[in-house]
Amino acid sequence: MSTSLSFDGISEFVAVAETHGFTSAAKRLNVSTSHISRQIAKVEKHLGVALFARTTRQVKLTDAGFNYYQHCQGLLDGLAQANEEVSYQQVELTGTLRVSAAGEFAELYIVPVLLDFAKLHPNLNIDIDFNSKYVDFVQEGIDFSIRYGQLKDSSLIARKLVDRQLVAAASAEYLEKFGTPQTPQELISHDCIVAISDHWRFEHEKKEITVKVKPKWRSNSGRSLVQAVESGMGISYMPQSSYGSSLIDKSVVPILEPYWKKQIPTWIVYANKQYLPARARLAIDYLVEHFKNWQDA
Question: Can you give the pTM of this predicted structure?
Answer without folding.
Answer: 0.64
